[in-house]
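Fold sample X.
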Amino acid sequence: MAQTEELAARVQGPRSKVQRRFSLDVGRWTLDPSGRWRLAALLVGVLAAVVYPIPFQLQGATYFQTVGFLVLINAMLGVGWNIIGGWTGQFDFGPQVFFAVGAYVSAVILERLGWSPWLGMLAAVLFTVALCALLTYPITRLRGHYFAIATVAIWMIALPVGSTWEFIHGSLGLFIPFKVGKNVFEEVLNLQFGGPHKEMGYYYVALALFALVLRLARVVQSSKFGFYFQAIRDDQEGAEGIGINSRVYKVIARCMMAAVFAVGGVLYGMWALAVFPDQVLDLNWGTLPTIAVIVGGIGRLWAPLIGALILIPLSQAMSTTLGAGPLAGRGIDLIVYGIIIMLIAALRPNGLLSLPWGRWAGRLAPRRAPRP
């Protein structure tokens, strides 16, 4: 019996970090204090996200539902940017190009072919990934700020193309035809919600897509792709020395980011029922997700959500307050974002999630009495 247990232990290998955290105690699973607080925070966060729009729906306050929708879509984009910027260490300042490509591909398919928006979303993701691979591979020889400048150059080229290309109606943009669904099921299939529950419908779609993207990102992070990305970030020469093709994996990382931005572009286009170049190529679609990651903690899985919860309400408050005031159009929002980045860089360069939240939570947890 002892030999069998020893053999099983050798086959299974050392216990993982998760397995060590959980221990079987009198027929039930127990968590250490920090683990319990993390689980409790996750459950509370999920419950709050699900319940959030309901009180505003009852009161008819759709503005706050729109803010929640924008928080989720920017958090999702931040998760995508974190793959190339946080895990692979390649700062990309032109991801809004793929946001626009996804929105335009879906709008063209819906307007001219009449496909389902979900099929349009799939086609947009595939087309965007292929385009990203073609655009990214030539610039993977560049590093650091040279790579970042190349991504900005791609965005600057996309601006006049989007404004003048007749196939997508240039600056006139594309308008998405609205289909009235007879019930909620048809509205979900059409990805179009009407009436007083429009904002709540798009909020829950954004919540579902964010949860899916976050889960897929977690899978990527714990796979060989995640380890290869981080190896390239930490020591590219060393990674190439052990056989990792850094150029190929940079392309893969950026294509993953492009896929997420394409999904975000499709969802935003369906919500707005129109796609204009100035709208989907706006600098904020690249700036806000990037700053959200930096505020939360670059390279950390939950960082985009934490940053978006801070930045997007602030952005919307500034738009509401300064939209018609004397400071409108003077770039005050960019000044505020710059101040936030400087404060984070000076006070907490690793982001808010690098604070010892687990230790603080452990102090609040009641201590267990020692066993006799």
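Fold sample Y, listed below.
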Amino acid sequence: MKLIKNLHYKKILSLFLKQDGSPLFNAKGVALGVFCGCFPFFGFQTLLGLFLARVAKGNLFLAAIGTWISNPFTYIPLYFFNYKVGSYFIKTSPDIVFDKNLMIKELWEQGRVFSLKLILGSVLVGFLLSSISGGIVFLLYKRKIRKRVFKNKKKSL
């Protein structure tokens, strides 16, 4: 319990801001992590985020943190929203009421349509959230560099 009390947001933020690399390098890591965190691939989001960050030459640590956008507290609202976004773009007939006479083929068809809506929504929401988070992180690191340069100029004068 003492560990939780000592874990302040300033310590977490300082760990986040102490990452080396250019603003673009760090922003790519966060953006790819957030993008992967929007998908319902429980347990594989972090691995997928790390893989994509490695391929795109982004910050691996920040990519892993970015996948934490989905966690036990945000799973239901995030995936429900993703599903609704996907449903907006994939129009289907009204949902079939489940009864005992429902054919197996119809059941598989509903599962396929549900999955398509969820994945499409996850892609679209992932693009939006990763663009926003990547842009914010880029600006934060750019500001950090400017402050460091300004501080060094003041010291040299």
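Sample Y note: Residues 104-156 form the longest helix (53 residues).
Also: Helices lie at 2-6, 9-17, 23-37, 45-55, 60-66, 75-89, 104-156.
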